[in-house]
Design goal:
By secondary structure, the protein is α/β, with parallel strands linked by helices. It is built from 13 helices and 8 strands. It folds into 2 domains: 32-136, no CATH class; 163-311, IlvD/EDD C-terminal domain-like (Glucose Oxidase, domain 1), CATH 3.50.30.80. Helix content is 34%, strand content 13%.
């Protein structure tokens, strides 16, 4: 139906038009779970890989999939599509282009067209039409920029921008963004400098005690440990400012901003607050990050780790009361979207 703006309405019409469309979707019986199915999730992951999107997308899409009732693993989708998606777009911090330029070059519609048969065109959307129908009828307002949004034949690389790592330091999963740093950093081996909170790491970096070859370990910043999983963007910015971004690495059970670059690994699961192996790392331990192999490993013998585990005790919850205490108790791991996931026994109470 045609949209008409009420008289006196100022500013963008988009919020008003969105409200109208929501009413139309309700009337047509098109609910969020009819749109957010496996096809939509697969398309979303494919797009994130092709644009080297934020690692936060892994967390958010995992949470969306849980709320939508999808039983599959978003982490597995990211892992699979890393190997089968060409890298077609680079924007800041991986390139000089910004998001406004990406939009003017055609944005997500142009990108999805370039991905071709890698996108499921049958997926339903909030327009009431499929992805394929939307793309077929899309009108571009600005000319194409084939250097910004490349084709699969002229891609930056044959892998996606977001990689899932596993290993004895991340038995479930960890996430990194090789699309934001060069191939020379995708294999990194260094000695751990361990910090139990972001603030302690920031102070050490600014004081100059972090040196080339170090792997900065920031723990107890995961969903439960935070609680709430803060972004470790300051530490990465400080490393960059001190000229260490190309000479150090950072691993954490926290997360990162999409503006970060450098060799970083986040979302380590299980997190330190749950007794994950990251809680057992000590200063001087060697850590290996191997993106091509999909590995994150702590080079410490199992016997030594067992001795450390026997002495480890859970730290006190950072939120002593209220909603955050509940979140710290019930939050799932980052690998599951950090959603509040009450077990049946909790629900019964």
């Amino acid at each position: 139906m045609p949209l008409s703006r009420p008289s006196g309405l100022t500013g963008s019409a988009a919020p008003y038009e969105a409200g109208i469309r929501i009413c139309q979707l309700v009337e047509a019986g098109i609910t969020p779970r009819k749109i957010l199915d496996e096809r939509a999730l697969r398309n979303a992951v494919r797009v994130v890989q092709a644009i080297s999107g934020s690692t936060n997308a892994v967390l958010h899409l995992s949470a969306v999939a849980y709320e939508a009732g999808w039983s599959g693993s978003v982490m597995d989708l990211f892992d699979q599509m890393y190997h089968t998606t060409s890298h077609l777009v680079k924007v800041n911090p991986a390139a000089a282009y910004d998001m406004e330029e990406f939009h003017r070059a055609g944005g997500i519609p142009r990108l999805m067209e370039r991905l071709g048969d890698l996108i499921d065109s049958t997926a339903l959307t909030c327009t009431g039409q499929t992805v394929g129908e939307n793309l077929k009828g899309y009108h571009y307002l600005f000319p194409d920029n084939p250097e910004l949004i490349r084709t699969r034949e002229t891609a930056y690389g044959l892998h996606g921008g977001v990689a899932v790592l596993r290993g004895n330091l991340a038995p479930h999963t960890a996430v990194t963004k090789p699309g934001a740093y060069g191939p020379h950093l995708q294999r990194f081996r260094g000695k751990a400098r361990v910090f139990n909170r972001e603030e302690a790491a920031n102070e050490a970096i600014l004081a100059g005690t972090v040196q080339p070859g170090d792997v900065v370990v920031i723990r107890y910043e995961g969903p439960k440990g935070g609680p709430g999983m803060r972004e470790m963007y300051k530490a990465m910015k400080f490393l960059y400012g001190r000229g260490l971004a190309e000479q150090t690495a950072l691993v954490t059970d926290g997360r990162f901003s999409g503006t970060n670059n450098g060799c970083f690994v986040g979302h380590i699961s299980p997190e330190a607050a749950e007794g994950g192996p990251i809680a057992l790392v000590e200063d001087g331990d060697e850590i290996v990050i191997d993106v091509p192999a999909g590995r994150l490993d702590l080079l410490v013998e199992e016997g030594e780790l067992a001795r450390r585990r026997a002495k480890w005790t859970p730290p006190p919850v950072q939120a002593p009361r209220g909603y955050l205490q509940c979140y710290a108790r019930w939050a799932s791991s980052a690998a599951q979207g950090a959603v509040i996931h009450c077990g049946e026994e909790e629900v019964e109470r």
